[in-house]
Amino acid sequence: MHPAFSIILFTTLSGLGYGLAVVLGLGFLDPSLLSTKLAYLASLALIGIGLLSSLLHLGNPQRAWRALSQWRSSWLSREGVMAIATFVPLTLNAALVIFTDRYDAILGLIGVLGALVTVYCTSMIYASLRTVGSWHTRLTPLCFILISLAGGLLLAGAFAGGNALMVELLALVVILLALTAKMVWRNRATTLVPISTPESATGLGFIGKVRLFERPHALDNYLTREMGFRVARKHAAKLWVVAFFFGAILPILTLLIAMAAGSGATAQLGLIAGVVAHFLGVFVERWLFFAEAKHAVMNYY
């Protein structure tokens, strides 16, 4: 599949923002601190920028509102509805924290539920597609949610300045869980035997093995542009090492350094470095998520 920059940026930024929203909604950070107020603003900014970047992938962004009407059958529509609905409790709680130093538990829990459901809806846009075997698994939403929570906990730790040991411990556990889930997901994707083959796609399997004699047409079309992307296997293997190293290994090391250093500038700088590394790792992971996906329609090409 073609790895669209706007969608990769959207899933990476919004996932980080929703993960942070979950941590804030659970009340792990002191609402009276300036850093907590900044964390609320950062969460809303990350979610907003991510959603705006997703509009760049639409053919007619001015008609994006029409996608919201198909929530009964479309995960994309459900994602849009949930994203808008979740903004309400997140904004209200942010306003309470910023202007009154008060955290509302009910609004917080509603925001947590909304954030998790929104990330789940995003993941199901891909996991629901039977035409892409590597995506069509329950591991896909699990990976999206765990990676989102891992990034949110890391970012919350950075805003706390190393003063939230519980957040750091949770971040360490969730990153390890996300790493495990992603490794299982990748092992499945690389060993998956495709259900749809050129033989089954053409109905000529009873004759023997089918090979392409000539392209269906001389010029590219939407299918070949969006679903015919190719990445060399050796390059993909190297990029997966980069994704795992920056997305999980470096953040784990920075967390251990921060916990050893306690509070202070060393811990905060280490956590900020961990957040940056995690963002870069997830960005590469999302690029590969699309670049290595094989759509069944390409059996005809």
SSE inventory with pairings:
Elements: H1 5-25, H2 34-55, H3 75-100, H4 105-127, H5 139-160, H6 165-191, H7 198-202, H8 222-227, H9 233-261, H10 265-291
Compact summary:
The protein is mainly α and 301 residues long. The chain is 69% helix and 0% strand.
How does this structure look, described?
The chain has 301 residues and is mostly helical. The longest helix has 29 residues. 40% of the residues are buried. The chain is built from ten helices and no strands. It is globular, with a radius of gyration of 21 Å.
Low-pLDDT runs of 5+ residues are: none
Radius of gyration, in Å, reads 21 Å
Amount of beta strand: under 5%
Shape: globular
The secondary-structure element order is: HHHHHHHHHH
Write down how many β-strands occur, each being a DSSP E stretch of 2 or more residues.
0
Helical residues, percent: 55-70%
> How many DSSP H or I helices?
10
Mean pLDDT: 89
* End-to-end C-alpha gap: 13 Å
- Outline the biggest β-sheet: none
- Could you say which structural class the secondary elements and strand pairing correspond to? mainly alpha
